[in-house]
Specification:
Helices cover about 20% and strands about 20% of the residues. The protein contains nine helices and 21 strands. The chain has helices at about 1-35, 50-70, 80-90, 180-190, 250-260, 265-270, 285-300, 530-535, 535-545, and strands spanning about 40, 45, 135-145, 170-180, 210-220, 230-235, 350, 355-360, 385-390, 400-410, 430, 440, 445-450, 465-470, 475-480, 490, 495, 500-510, 510-520, 525-530, 560-565.
């Protein structure tokens, strides 16, 4: 290694000179001896040195001359704002069409369709809408035909859609309210009526008419401590999806106004979902028909009750029916009719397909009317009925409801000089305050369970429980034999019998067998097995199941059940925490 370093140090000048000679030779070979890159175009050899000059001489000069000497073409552009204005212009007296296209944002104070409104006295106030009044809550459990969720606008069609289920079990409430017409009429007259008797209305003809354009329900849930949760807006059912309420744009408000005029029923008294084929549980009934039946039963000035009703023994209703609210004493004199095929007893019968009703007392003295479009509140004499449905309730929980409603502002779209406040002509709606709360309604539990035996051979052995649940439109039963520590009820034969309770232990005390049960919340209860298994409540649930069975096949529920209302109490009533 030392010898190599000594050689390099002595001959470094010659090494550098040799590298320079090699580089010079490579450059001479590349640039002098080997011909440059070239290509033949049109018989002319093109190289990097002459390509620019050749392009200019053959084509570039001619193109430059043509551009400098040519006349630019002319393009005719239409006056689009003028064309649009002419298309939207309307002859005098012709109303604004229901659907137009918003080519430019609406300007403050714009009054579409205002040229057909005659001048008149200035509007100095808008009506203050009275809050709605609670009327009744109708509730039940029904098997319906599933409602498909609406597709979003411009959503692609799914390639394959799974076959829908044949039925869907729902617990539901229908909350009914009335809009009091007397205070509404008074407000309407103050705002739009004559200043003096005999004078015309401040808005001509039917320009002061209105219609219900929105109804919103709010639900509160009763908390374990007795208080109430915050109000939540009740969503519309899937078969009652409405057009979104417009927020700001004038054209959206005009289109919504036209849509609402043709959908009064969808807004204020929507349809109930389609009930599945039998068995299907509770039949929904129009609150107006229910109210008419209630008023006929108690008698009203327009429809008095019979002077000498047929005598019959009074009865006590434990769970609510058409006659009254939950837990009320029913002193009506409707005779009890034994159900065919069942032994006569003192138990009153209410068909399973009848809804439960919790009405407000006292009842109205006159039937309300379903709202219509083009309504003149000052010329209406009956209260207006509105109701909505709620299928998001949970069995065993207690709820209350209130609503707010909107009416079309008759001053919307009118000339700005007709209003003391210029902003009123841009205000689409008149909004009421929220109503008082409806009667409290407790949703009927879906699952019950009872001891299936009066005693147990030995402590710690498995013990049977009869579990009853409502599914596919009828009451069904399954007996579960469980060990201490096991849950009472599970899914069996495609039906969910879960109770949310656990069998803790069974002990003999005072020669009677007692079972200890704990629910999901940690609450413990003790039942005496013989009283629970032989209770009238247990027998009642068995009757529900039997009445949903074909003749000779008790317990196999395949047809609508009839709900029997228990008349008497037990020595020690069982405590059956409802599921969920």
């Amino acid at each position: 290694m030392q010898k190599i370093l000594q050689f390099l140090e002595k001959n470094v000048e010659w090494l550098a000179l040799g590298l320079g000679v090699l580089f010079l030779g490579w450059a001479a070979w590349t640039y002098l001896i080997i011909p440059p890159v070239s290509n033949v175009v049109g018989g002319i050899v093109m190289t990097p040195g002459n390509v620019d000059d050749e392009i200019w001489n053959t084509s570039g000069e001619r193109l430059d001359t043509a551009i400098k000497g040519a006349t630019p073409p002319s393009f005719k552009v239409d006056d689009f704002p003028k064309t649009v204005a002419q298309g939207l212009a309307l002859p005098p007296g012709q109303p604004l069409p229901p659907l137009v296209w918003d080519f430019q944002p609406a300007q403050p104070g714009a009054t579409p369709g205002a040229n057909n409104v005659a001048s008149g006295p200035m509007i100095t106030q808008l009506p203050v809408l009275p809050p709605a009044k609670p009327l009744m809550v109708v509730h039940g459990q029904t098997t319906i035909v599933p409602m498909p969720a609406p597709l979003a606008t411009n959503a692609p069609t799914p390639a394959a859609v799974a076959a829908p289920s044949a039925h869907k079990d729902i617990h539901w409430t229908t909350i009914a309210f009335t809009i009091p017409i007397a205070p509404l009429s008074d407000q309407w007259t103050k705002a739009f009526g004559p200043n003096k008797p005999g004078e015309p209305w401040k808005l001509p003809d039917t320009q002061h008419n209105t219609e219900i354009i929105a109804v919103t329900a709010y639900r509160s849930e009763k908390l374990p401590g007795g208080g109430w949760s915050e109000e939540k807006e009740v969503p519309r059912l899937l078969n009652n999806v409405l057009q979104p309420f417009p927020v700001r744009r004038r054209i959206d408000q005009i289109n919504f106004q036209s849509w609402a005029a043709n959908h009064s029923t969808d807004i204020a008294t929507p349809l109930f979902p389609t009930r599945a084929p039998e068995p299907a549980g509770t039949v929904w009934k129009d609150p107006l028909m229910i109210l008419q039946g209630l008023m006929s039963a108690v008698g009203t000035p327009a429809n008095p009750a019979p002077a000498n009703p047929a005598p019959a023994a009074p009865r006590r209703v434990v769970s609510s029916g058409i006659e009254g609210g939950a837990g009320e004493e029913d002193t009506s004199t409707t005779p009890t009719t034994p159900t065919p095929g069942m032994p006569a007893s003192s138990v009153a019968v209410t068909l399973m397909n009848e809804p439960k009703v919790d009405p407000v007392r006292p009842l109205p003295t006159a039937l309300p009317a379903a709202p219509q479009a083009n309504l003149n509140p000052a010329a209406t004499t009956t209260d207006l009925l509105v109701y909505l449905h709620d299928d998001q309730v949970t069995p065993g929980k207690t709820y209350r409801y209130c609503i707010a409603y909107m009416l079309l502002n008759p001053l919307f779209g009118k000339p700005a000089d007709r209003a003391a406040n210029k902003a009123w002509v841009d205000q689409l709606d008149l909004l009421s305050e929220k109503s008082d709360y409806s009667p409290e309604v407790t949703i009927e539990p879906q699952t019950f369970f009872y001891c299936a035996a009066a005693n147990q051979p030995k402590p710690g052995f498995p013990f049977p429980f009869d579990v009853f649940t409502w599914a596919s439109g009828l009451w069904q039963k399954h007996t579960f034999t469980v060990n201490p520590g096991d849950a009472i009820g599970t899914v069996a034969d495609g039906v969910d019998y879960s109770t949310g309770c656990t069998y803790v232990d069974g002990r003999v005390h005072s020669r009677q067998f007692h079972v200890t049960i704990v629910d999901d919340s940690g609450q413990t209860s003790i039942r005496r097995a013989d009283l629970d298994s032989n209770s009238s409540d247990h027998k009642l649930k068995q009757q529900w199941v039997d009445q949903g069975s074909p003749p000779g096949n008790a317990g196999a529920a395949t047809r609508p059940a009839a709900k029997l209302i228990n008349e008497g109490g037990d020595e020690e009533p069982p405590t059956s925490p409802p599921r969920r």
